[in-house]
From TrEMBL:
Protein name: ATP synthase epsilon chain
Cellular compartments annotated: Cell membrane; Endomembrane system
Domain ATP synthase F1 complex delta/epsilon subunit N-terminal: 7-87
Keyword presence, Translocase: no
GO cellular component terms, A-Z: endomembrane system; plasma membrane; proton-transporting ATP synthase complex
Annotated membrane topology: Peripheral membrane protein
GO molecular function: ATP binding; proton-transporting ATP synthase activity, rotational mechanism
High-level lineage: Bacteria, Bacillati, Bacillota, Negativicutes, Acidaminococcales
Purpose: Produces ATP from ADP in the presence of a proton gradient across the membrane.
Classification via InterPro entries: ATP_synth_F1_dsu/esu, ATP_synth_F1_dsu/esu_N, ATPsynth_dsu/esu_N
NCBIfam families: ATP_synt_epsi
Quaternary structure, from the entry: F-type ATPases have 2 components, CF(1) - the catalytic core - and CF(0) - the membrane proton channel. CF(1) has five subunits: alpha(3), beta(3), gamma(1), delta(1), epsilon(1). CF(0) has three main subunits: a, b and c.
SUPFAM superfamilies assigned: Epsilon subunit of F1F0-ATP synthase N-terminal domain (SSF51344)
Superkingdom of this protein's organism: Bacteria
Amino acid sequence: MIMARLMKLEVLTPEKILVKREDISYVLLNTVTGGVGVLANHGPMIAVLGEGTLKLQDKDNHVILVYVEGGFAEVKDNQVVILTPRAQRAENIDVAKYQQIRDEALARLDHPDALTDVEHTEKILRRAEARLRTAALVGKVDPYPLGSE
């Protein structure tokens, strides 16, 4: 009996289906407790995702990087479904925009006034930095070495 080596994957936001593929060989989830690698035939799992990078690898060993703003991942029956409030492919992240957002958040935190919502500003900073880290990985991530059995 030949075991499946590929998975279906969907990255869903309230607005759109960002990624829908049936040729995924490996997924690296950025969970709140650390990275979790998922290969075909992985056991059922639900994970809480942190803000950061979702790494996907297709059957041709192409790496796809996606920023996810938290959410949940369900792994079941060779299918991975990511539900997240916001997601963006790494190559589409506007680096200059998020550098400016990061810099403005840092300036507000360095010199808060009575109207500064520190917790909200820290969240903006975390999300901008996570997007910038994701964008910085484009072209720099090697495929996961999948052995031949």
